[in-house]
Every structure is written in C-alpha cells, then in structure tokens.
C-alpha cells in the first residue's frame, strides 16, 4: 500500500501529459494511470467499457456504514487545442508563474487531481469515511458521454445503488463581481434542446431587388428576434436562492436590483451594474434561452435561396418544463413561420436539494476560507451530473478553488493557455479531503 498521499499539483501535471483529447478521445492511458494510482493506495478498482480503448473507472472505498455512499465523478477527456494561440506547450504540464499550465488544468484534470489526492490522503491516514466513497472517472464528457457516464448509468446502474449525493465539476458556473471570493456550489443544471429551424421562400435571380416572401427575409426576422428578444423570466428555486445570497452580500443598488429579479417579473438583469460576463450569466439562468449557431443554405451566389436552415442551441431550465412548453415560448419570440425540428433533447434536470449534504459543502468552504462566500448556483450548461441525477442522486458541482476575488479563472477553460493557480489546487484537494472526513 502507498503510505504517501498523492500531491495534487504533481498529479495534475502528470494528468495533463496524457493527451486525452476528445474527439477522438484517447482517455485509455490516462484512466489506466489513475487505476494504478488507486490500486497502489489499496483501493478496489473496476474498469467498465463500451469501447475497450475508452474505459470508465469505478472505485469504491468502504466506509463505516454511518452515511449513504457518496459519489465523486470526473471526466478524463479534454477539448482540442487546434487553432488556439497557446504561449506554452499545452500537454507539458508546465509549472511556472505560480500556475499549472495545460489543457485540462481547469476542465477538469485539476478537479480530478484534487479528488485523487484527497482519496489517497484518506487511505494514507488510515481514515475510513462515514459512508462508502465511490469514484467514477469517465471518458467522453466533452462530446455527449455515450462511452462514459451515459454507459455507466445505462448498463451499470447497480454500482451506484444507495448513493444519495454526488460531487463533480462546476460546469462553468462562475460569478466575479462584488469584490468577493465567491465559491460556487452548483445545485442545478439546465438541459439542452437543440433544434433545426427551416425557413422557406420564393427563389429567383439575385440580380432582381425587392421580392417579398424570400427565405432571406424570414431569416433576418428570426435572427433579429433571437438576438434582441428574450424568453420570459422564470424564478426557479436555484435562481431564487442564488439571487437572495447575491443580494445579501452586495452593497448599494446591486442588492436592490438582485432582490427585484426575484420578486418583480418586469425587472431587468443589471447589465449597468455588473461586468458583462456576470450579467450574461444571470440573464442565462433566469430564463430558457435560444442561440442561433449554424446557418446553412445554397452555395449559388446569384440565386435567392428557397430554403435556409438554422441550428439553434436551446437550453431549458431545471424543473418540469417539457420541450413542447419550451417551443411554445420560443414561438412567441420567433413567430409561427419557421418549421422546427428538435435534434436533441437532454433529460429533465432536477430542482436543487438544499439539505444536510449541501450544508456540509458550505461549511467546509466556510472553514477553509472564512473570507470567501459560498454561493449556490445554476450552470447554464450541463455536465455528467445530469446523467447521475437520472439515478435519483442529488448532484452538486463542487470543486473549490482559491483564487483572488473577481478572478475570471475559468476564462481559459476550453481556450488557449488554460491554467490554474497552484494554491487553488492545493486548497481544493484540502477541501475535498475535509468533506470526505466530515460528511454525514
Ligand atoms: Zn468538464
């Protein structure tokens, strides 16, 4: 047995050196490394694969039976680096300037390193957690999870019997304003509703100006509506709790404006008081959203196209809204004209659970960083948590990082020069360890 806990910073450097870029996804060597590390610490490991080159790892540390099993889930794949302007080699795991640099430093090999370090520390100390602790390390999170978490929950759900709570990545939920160090605790996620709109109209030679009823005119109307309009605001339990805490920890007019967002349906997101990124974030979690991302039409420059398709990335709030409810809202914005086909609909996402486990997450943060403010948040995106939530597990995005107040540390996520402060990783590993030793 390995009596030495794994150093989270060295571990992160090592993990970054595996080029587990997805697509194509070559997570195998990275997952095998993690399996060896856990086995060396005396932990039981199982590998479960739909594709043998892209295995999932599930490990279990027996607890004392005083609490339900707890799941830590992470993904081993990272997004590509092509076309990005890196100033350091992205897979070297360089340590400089107080940061670990490289693809995955934030999303999410940093988080995986924190979890693994905490687990090996628990083992090295001979500490048994209150309940069994399960670790799932999956491939394929970045392109739909078919080989990863979806395979696990569809084919090996029994491994997660009895699990009540899970922690995983934060899915990019971040708030930077207000001069405080906010610690996100992601309590809810939105789900995807990807669509294709088709617009039709009269054709003709493009040398003639002024035709009514063209597909281009319909496209202009639809894109204009999507760009300047908004779907209606809905105050969900996650939003209400977040806005109330932002109000409580804000000064001056911002506090009032945050409260108004909860109670006044006509209140607008305070773009005038917040950095744009924070306002955009709030705007995206108080409502369902729709963004046009791909436009396709003919390739004839001298012909008016008779058909144009537009792919739309729609996102639906947690709760009971169906895709039809969402489409009805969308119709009020874009009108009856476009034909809409749903290409992909994510599973319904659950409302948050604010119980004793949530309180444990918050109290670890308060203990480890008395100056920071834990903040319940919703992510406008979705992570593998949506799949584990389908098993009835209450999932939380919780990988604490110690960064300076106002830091937009996640701006390098999926971008060039992804990096994470060394002290942030050590802090996170320490918080995860504390959670494992104290949760009930
Ligand atoms: Zn991620």
Protein architecture, described:
- This is Acetylornithine deacetylase/succinyl-diaminopimelate desuccinylase-like protein.
- Its cofactor is Zn(2+).
- With 440 residues, this protein is α/β, with parallel strands linked by helices.
- It folds into two domains: 8-169 and 383-438, Aminopeptidase, CATH 3.40.630.10; 191-223 and 288-344, Alpha-Beta Plaits (2-Layer Sandwich).
- The chain contains twelve helices and 17 strands.
- The protein has helices at 8-16, 28-40, 109-124, 149-155, 215-228, 237-248, 252-263, 276-285, 323-334, 356-368, 385-389, 422-438, and strands spanning 44-48, 56-61, 70-75, 95-96, 99-101, 133-138, 165-168, 182-189, 191-200, 204-205, 289-296, 303-304, 307-316, 339-345, 373-379, 394-397, 419-421.
- The longest helix has 17 residues, at 422-438.
- It is globular and about 80 Å long.
- The structure holds zinc ion (ZN).
- Zinc ion binds next to loops.
């Amino acid at each position: 047995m390995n009596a030495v806990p794994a150093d989270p910073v060295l571990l992160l450097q090592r993990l970054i050196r595996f080029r587990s870029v997805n697509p194509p996804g070559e997570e195998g060597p990275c997952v095998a490394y993690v399996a060896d590390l856990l086995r060396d610490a005396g932990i039981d490991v199982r590998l479960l694969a739909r594709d043998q080159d892209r295995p999932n790892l599930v490990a279990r540390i027996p607890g004392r039976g005083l609490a339900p099993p707890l799941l830590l889930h992470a993904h081993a794949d990272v997004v590509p680096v092509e076309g990005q302007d890196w100033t350091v080699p992205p897979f070297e795991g360089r340590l400089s300037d107080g940061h670990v640099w490289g693809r995955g430093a934030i999303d999410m090999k940093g988080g995986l390193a924190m979890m693994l370090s905490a687990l090996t520390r628990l083992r090295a100390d001979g500490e048994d957690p209150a309940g069994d602790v399960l670790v799932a390390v999956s491939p394929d999170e970045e392109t739909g999870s078919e080989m990863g978490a979806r395979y696990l929950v569809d084919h090996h759900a029994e491994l997660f019997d009895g699990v009540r709570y899970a922690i995983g990545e934060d899915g990019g939920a971040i708030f930077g304003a207000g001069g405080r160090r906010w610690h996100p605790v992601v309590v809810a996620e939105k789900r995807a509703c990807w669509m294709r709109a088709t617009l039709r109209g009269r054709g003709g030679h493009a040398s003639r100006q002024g035709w009514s009823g063209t597909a281009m005119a319909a496209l202009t109307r639809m894109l204009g509506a999507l760009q300047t309009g908004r779907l209606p605001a809905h105050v969900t339990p996650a939003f209400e709790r977040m806005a109330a805490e932002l109000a409580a920890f804000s000064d001056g007019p911002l506090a009032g404006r945050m409260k108004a967002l909860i109670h006044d349906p006509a209140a607008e997101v305070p773009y005038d008081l917040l950095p744009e990124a924070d306002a955009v974030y709030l705007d995206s979690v108080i409502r369902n959203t729709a963004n046009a991302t791909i436009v396709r039409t003919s390739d004839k420059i001298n012909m008016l196209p008779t058909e144009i398709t537009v792919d739309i990335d729609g996102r639906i709030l947690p709760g009971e809204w169906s895709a039809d409810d969402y489409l009805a809202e969308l119709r009020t914005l874009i009108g009856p004209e476009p034909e809409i086909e749903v290409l992909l609909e994510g599973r319904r996402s659950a409302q948050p659970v604010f119980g004793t486990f949530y309180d444990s997450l918050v109290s670890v943060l308060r203990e480890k960083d008395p100056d920071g403010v834990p903040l319940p948040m919703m992510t406008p995106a979705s992570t593998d948590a949506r799949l584990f939530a389908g098993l009835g597990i209450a999932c939380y995005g919780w990988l604490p990082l110690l960064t300076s107040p106002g830091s937009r540390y996640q701006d390098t996520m999926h971008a060039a020069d992804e990096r994470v402060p060394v002290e942030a990783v050590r802090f996170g590993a320490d918080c995860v360890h504390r959670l494992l030793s104290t949760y009930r």
